[in-house]
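Example complex used in Figure S2.
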Amino acid sequence: MIRKLLEAFFRHKWLVLLPPFLIPIVVTPIAFVTTPVAYESIVGVWVDNPTYLDVKSSQSFYTSAAQTQANQLTELLHTRNFMLDVVGRTSLAPLVGTPAGEARVADLIDKGVTVSSASSTSTHLLTIRSHFTTPQLAYQVAQAIVDAYSDRNSNQLVDQSSTAISFYQSQLQDAQDQSTQANQQLSQYAIAMGYASSGDGTPLAPDAQSASSFDPKFAELQASAHFAQQQVDAARSALQNAQQSSAAAIQGQDMSFQVLDPPQLPTAPVTSVKNILIYGIAALVIGLGLSTIVLVLLVAGDRSIRQDADLHPPVRVLGIVPTLTLKQRLPKALRGTATRRAIGFVAGTALPAPRGTK
Amino acid sequence: MVVSEREEAANRVDMIDTPQNDAAVLTQWQVPDADPDQNRDWLFPGVDEYFRGIYTRAGLGYASETLAVCSSISGEGKTTVSVGLAVTLALDFPESRVLLVETDLTKPVLAADFDVEETPGLVDCVHAGEPIQLAYRPTFLDNLHVVPVGGPLVGAGRILRSVRLASAIDAMRTTHDIVILDVPPVLVNSDSILLTDLADCVICVIRSGVTPLELVNKAISQLDAEKLRGVVINGSESAVPRWIRNMWAQ
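Predicted assembly (608 residues):
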């Protein structure tokens, strides 16, 4: 089979090799001409891993900040909410009113926006490429992505901070309430027992300080009031810490997403080398496939006999005579019978002797 | 005038009953001038070995036989193989007398190939009832003669089917040890079946890369299996470069 394939390939090499050469030669210029003009706006962003409030980072130690943010941004761009947020900031906003328009916008964003690390070795530099048919749209989308992502991160941190502060504030309020209640109980008991003159904050009698030593109830109320005060102090401290962390995170947000190269309005179209290459490679693959089909068809369709193995049923082969072609130039009249005359010239044919033959 | 020519012909036939007289009769034809380079080697060096292998495997040359060289369709090289076999046999067996007979009326080429007179040929002699020896043409090889088909005649196809043809072939057997009949394609001309029936053995020529297997099988099925010595694949040529073939062979 391999022998037949080789034979067919070399026998029809031009026919077999034509598709892989011809199709890319035809398709690539067509792709070059027909590929729509595109404009590209590029944003360079210095990023760091997202900062959260006292939350253990789930980021892999081996994933760079640029990769993390790129993955996050790419995933967000595939969400309807974020995508609509981005589109709403651009001239594509009118399209989002209908399902078909949203699908169209999603397709445009999917094909036109590329988020990646600036290079394979880049750990913090993120590149956002916006590739659209008009310079304004390319610029608007790039800017909108940066703004939407930045706003989203800020809002997220503010939400987290608010939640944390609210939590600690409620804890402080509870602690303060408990402390107030404990102090009131202590005061009422002290007044009732005569350890204090009134409940309006008048200091206890001098001997009241030692009352705890002989009055267990009073000692217990004193301890409760003291513990409640400690809880208030702890809650206040936690609230202060949360407020400080929140402020630091919000300020740090600016540091973890710094737009170093803001988007520019492109002034010249970019050559879509990638598309042309894809078309060229696809044409080459198609050409190779076509060649393979042609080769298989040539082998399958060749029912002629080239050697004894091709004879079915087997017949005794007495000999195989190769193609006999005279290298000498002959008169036109002799060309039809040249081979026979050359074979039989020793018997008297009139074929002129070739030069130099003895 | 016609009578005198026939008488001359009859006299000539009387003279060629024996090989010794044959040469004298053949001189009536204009024998080509002796080629000064007659002793030179084949124009295709080594090609005689191919034909030598064919007749050896076919068992020819060691007994008096009539060989029919046929093919399934035209253009397969049966005349080339016939010429090659005739010349090689004549060279290799100088004591044997070889006769190459052309029977394909549609494409007569032998006269042109050997640069001899076209008429009278096989059909002329058979049609006129004249001795077939009148159609013999000499060659540079003393023991090789050729018979062009002759004609053209109206109804020549019928002549090949006549009893006279069988008689003519019998006459050829008497004058020559090896008679090679270059017969028409089996699937194109039904005369070839008759001619192969008159022969002692048959060789079928197949053009490499041209003749479909189905046609070859069909042609072979029409031949007498006992007479078929085998097939010759003609015009074999591999398109694969030699270095690849060598690599493959290893």
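Chain B has eleven helices and seven strands. The first helix of chain B runs from residue 2 to 15.
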